[in-house]
Structures are given as structure tokens and as C-alpha cells.
């Protein structure tokens, strides 16, 4: 259990003294000190009180060593994005830093994509990936760049380098936006997303290229999701291909037309 070290860490991150937290939680300071030093064990009421005070689930306070989280992950936790509250497991990302302790942007080239599917959580594998920095991106967030293949996301051409921001809380996915998704069976895919997680535990993956049919994927088959930030390519995109927003709208229209056809057939019967 990491309860004692976690409550001490979160208290210090808030800049609060033991006296201040003890007063807020309506307990004696020696009792609080005993919890932080691990010489006393809290009851269920005390666990609930700490959970409500920090806005962090009891599961997280007990099971997760918060000292091992990256700064960006701690900030997400403090902002209310505790995935234990959402009913899923905390996704701790394997990452690398430079000599100044700044987080690198790891590069996943085409030849490393198959290995990434198996080794995305292996520190040794991730450490072998090429790394670089982009000074115009936020140092508070985690980024990774993947080389995509195929024409399903035209006008973004084949072999482009697509940079994504790590998404820890999947309930924040926005419909009609592009994401890089690491899947259990298909490896790395780059698609527009329609989230159906809350109701069905699935996401719908949509290509910009209308020649490719949308399909659904259960969240149990997903390992990582990265929100599209930008891409780098040697090719100029064609102006004749529809934009991401138009492609998403067309796919929505296609769904509506299908529903209308089904209702007509049902009513005719």
C-alpha cells in the first residue's frame, strides 16, 4: 500500500501543513502524522475523507505509487482525471527523458511499429527508440511520433510522421477528432474517432478516405490513445480531398441514411 506516502506527497504539492490538513479533515494532527509516517492505519471514514479532500479515488491513494508518476500525469490527477473513478485501470506510460530531465518525444518508425505493439510498456524497448524535442509543444504533456502507412487518412499521405499527445482519460475523447490508437490485434492505426465508451464500451474508427468503411473497436482491445497534434510529410496534400470535418460529416450522413432505410423496410413489413 502507498497510502502514507501518497497523502504526504499530495499534501506537499498543495503547499499545506499537517495542521491545515488535519483541521480540514476534522482530525488531530498526531493522528494525521501517524498516517503519513505509516505507524497508524486509517479506517474507511478516514479513507473517504482523504479521497474527497484530494479529489482522488481511494483505489488510487492505496494502490498507485504517485511518486512514480510523471508531472503531467500528476497534473491530470489533480485536475480530476482519475481513471480509477472512471472504472478502468490507471495507464502508466513508459517514457524517456533527456539529460535535463525533459521528456523526449520518442519516434516510432514504420520498421518499429510491429515491435511497439509488443514492447510499448517495456522500458528497454522504448529506450531504444530515436528521440527528439519540439520546443513549441507544452512541456507539461507527453508526446510521441508515429510513422503511418497507407492511404486511409488522405490527404495525410503515406509515410507521414504523425505526432500525438498521450490521452490518459479516455472519457475525454472528442468525436470527430483524429487519434493514433494502439490496438491489440491491428497494431497502430490512425483514425477519426466517435466515442461510444460510456454506453457501449466501444469506439468507432473512421478514415478520412471514404473508400474505407468505418468499424468499431472494443476498449478492451485498445492499449494506448494519442490525440493528433500535427504531421510532417515530404508531400503536399491534394486540395481535392475533403477535410477531416467533412469526412466525419459524410460518415454521419451515411449512418443516418442506413437507419432511414432500415426503418422504411421495417414499416413496409
Number of domains: 2
* Arrangement of strands in the largest sheet: 2-1-3-4-9-5-6-7-8
Main pleated-sheet profile? 9 strands, mixed
**How much is the radius of gyration in Å?**
23 Å
Q: What is the CATH architecture annotation of the largest domain?
A: Ribbon
What fold name stands as the CATH topology of the largest domain?
A: Umud Fragment, subunit A
Tally of helical runs: 10
Structural notes for this entry:
By secondary structure, the chain is α+β, with helices and mostly antiparallel strands. The protein has two domains: 3-68, 434 Repressor (Amino-terminal Domain) (Orthogonal Bundle); 105-257, Umud Fragment, subunit A. It has helices spanning 3-13, 18-24, 29-37, 44-54, 58-63, 71-78, 113-119, 123-127, 197-200, 244-268; strands spanning 105-108, 131-132, 143-147, 161-166, 177-183, 187-196, 202-206, 215-218, 222-232. A nine-stranded mixed β-sheet has the order 2-1-3-4-9-5-6-7-8. The longest helix is centred in the last third of the chain and has 25 residues, at 244-268. The chain starts with a helix and ends with a helix.
Amino acid at each position: 500500500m502507498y497510502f502514507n506516502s501518497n497523502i504526504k506527497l499530495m499534501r506537499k504539492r498543495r503547499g499545506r501543513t499537517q495542521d491545515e490538513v488535519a483541521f480540514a479533515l476534522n482530525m488531530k494532527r498526531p493522528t494525521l502524522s501517524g498516517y503519513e509516517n505509516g505507524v497508524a492505519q486509517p479506517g474507511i471514514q478516514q479513507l473517504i475523507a482523504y479521497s474527497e479532500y484530494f479529489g482522488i479515488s481511494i483505489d488510487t491513494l492505496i494502490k498507485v505509487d504517485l511518486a512514480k508518476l510523471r508531472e503531467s500525469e500528476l497534473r491530470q490527477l489533480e485536475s480530476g482525471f482519475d481513471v480509477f473513478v472512471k472504472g478502468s485501470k490507471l495507464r502508466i506510460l513508459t517514457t524517456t527523458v533527456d539529460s535535463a530531465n525533459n521528456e523526449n518525444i520518442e519516434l516510432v518508425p514504420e520498421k518499429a511499429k510491429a515491435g511497439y505493439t509488443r514492447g510499448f510498456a517495456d522500458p528497454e524497448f522504448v529506450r531504444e527508440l530515436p528521440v527528439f524535442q519540439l520546443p513549441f509543444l507544452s512541456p507539461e504533456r507527453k508526446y510521441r511520433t508515429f510513422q503511418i502507412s497507407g492511404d486511409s487518412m488522405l490527404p495525410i499521405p503515406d509515410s507521414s510522421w504523425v505526432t500525438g499527445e498521450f490521452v490518459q482519460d479516455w472519457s475525454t475523447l472528442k468525436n470527430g477528432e483524429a487519434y493514433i490508437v494502439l490496438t491489440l490485434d491491428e497494431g497502430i492505426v490512425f483514425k477519426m474517432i466517435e466515442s461510444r465508451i460510456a454506453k457501449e464500451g466501444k469506439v468507432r474508427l473512421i478514415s478520412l478516405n471514404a473508400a474505407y468503411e468505418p468499424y468499431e473497436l472494443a476498449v478492451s482491445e485498445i492499449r494506448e490513445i494519442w490525440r493528433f497534434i500535427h504531421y510532417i510529410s515530404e508531400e503536399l496534400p491534394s486540395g481535392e480531398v475533403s477535410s477531416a470535418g467533412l469526412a466525419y460529416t459524410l460518415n454521419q450522413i451515411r449512418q443516418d441514411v442506413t437507419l432511414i432505410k432500415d426503418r422504411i423496410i421495417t414499416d413496409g413489413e
